[in-house]
Predict the structure.
Amino acid sequence: MKSGTILLSHGAGGKLSHRLIQDVFLKAFKNPFLEPLNDQAVFPSPGKRLAFTTDSYVVSPIFFPGGDIGKLSVCGTINDLAVGGATPLYMSASFIIEEGLELEELAKVVESMAKTALMAGVQIVTGDTKVVEKGKADRLFINTAGVGVIPDGVDVGPSFMEPGDAVIISGTVGDHGVSVMRERGMITLDVDVESDCAPLHELASAVVSTGFVKAMRDPTRGGLITTLNELALSSGHGILVKEENIPVKEEVRGVCEILGFDPMYLANEGKMICIAGKDGAKDVLKAMRKNPLGKDAEIIGEVIGERSGKVLLETSLGTRRIMEMLSGEQLPRIC
Amino acid sequence: MKSGTILLSHGAGGKLSHRLIQDVFLKAFKNPFLEPLNDQAVFPSPGKRLAFTTDSYVVSPIFFPGGDIGKLSVCGTINDLAVGGATPLYMSASFIIEEGLELEELAKVVESMAKTALMAGVQIVTGDTKVVEKGKADRLFINTAGVGVIPDGVDVGPSFMEPGDAVIISGTVGDHGVSVMRERGMITLDVDVESDCAPLHELASAVVSTGFVKAMRDPTRGGLITTLNELALSSGHGILVKEENIPVKEEVRGVCEILGFDPMYLANEGKMICIAGKDGAKDVLKAMRKNPLGKDAEIIGEVIGERSGKVLLETSLGTRRIMEMLSGEQLPRIC
């Protein structure tokens, strides 16, 4: 079954669809909620407050250094739950496949999803497959949705932010963006940057347990500055960050200088922005750095009582400027 | 905002993405769970047992008689929850848009989703938007995922099926398939068949409350026969249906004869197959017919103790033959 290409009949709901489900999806995702293959998965409610999220993934190319569209789709949904303070538990996976995709490539993506989900303790419990004619999609698009539970006592969100809170980033920014550029052949230099694509639920849980976390976000599409703008807008406060404190890998900085990109606007897929109460900032930083995914964490700025809804960047020269969300498109189909 | 076309920047996560979310999505779907625009929606757990489902929609064209891709995407997820005995409550909506789609068309689809969700008491609480380059998708693909609650005491599923149970269909088959063929210009006759696209949660709840329902399924892609095959496989029993009892509109029969399709394999988007205990079959039929969406309901056959996993069709001449799932593709991108 794993050789050959995807045909329109694989999406028709008939014999080939069923064989694809059995041989590729069920084999990789195997769990008691998925196995009945009903139109819906049924599970006991895991707690009082649930978190629910979805994202579609259209990254091109579908394989890149450090990951692939499958790993990305599982990490993305895990991370959207984790930054809400939730423990990710159940996930759906839906595939839109362009006719002609190699079955072997699909299987590789699916196995990558299964591996990532297993590592994170998440079960893929329901799904769907559609196939469109050649030229009507671009190889493979994946949607995942996820359900998690918010443990009792955990309350995070931009509404808790206050002036004086510290702004912490869990590591270097721009790695995912540069890894995709590398795979696209946009970079002629020999750079060794891999995507940071990773599930952040353990890091999130570790920082939340310090008791000092006000809000978390993962700075994906639009990068650090866009996500800080969202936090500023949602909280109604200003945010001031110091450029020299923002961790950026040398190779990433180099590539960005040559190609005219700003690493602060490049997508990350395994980083977290954490807003922490002033008195607890060092504890949160320490908790982050204990986790391999947070080893390069830095306090990069603070929430301020002025410039409501805006993000200010203080350069190494001490000047300040407002950093807005991008108005154009920096790098399409980065996730 | 509602004039113009979709640009790549609408999917970049920056200013245009935010404006699209505010002016199109938030305006249509407005509810307190969506409004914080966090990466995840948080809601109180609605009960002890939850149902979770997802489907992607790639129907072409995106508007057809009786519906559009938006209505379809909301009904489809509602129905996948409803046939599991669940009350649909929360939904996600994720859009993959081809650059160049008219904003007006997107808004029309989104309004159709909002209207259908409102009617069904479902809230669209989280979502995502991606834009791909012209030629890399076909106008608009939508994914919806849904969460519902299974009321205490409700237990349905193929494992409850027994020989002797009645097989009931809630109305005429093949309407959706023919409506899409009509919109594609495949039919030169003047036929007035609309898609049956409709949310089935009230019909499902009405039949379940009779206490005689063993299992339910909505016969979408692959049609009545494919879905009966799934029920036969999952239950381990055989299913015998009488051709003459299967309701088919005259126009649908006519179109199928001319074009060489079988209405029993054509997709439906507002029909339900219900397996009911023998003694309660008439009660279930009565409950169905009271609902406008079940007015043409018929008992079409029974679960049998032989031919495990197979579907038998008894023709009007009294001969019986095995009806398998389709092995090819009858009509691509029907949903």
Observations:
- Chain A has two domains: 31-150, 158-322.
- The first helix of chain A runs from residue 15 to 29.
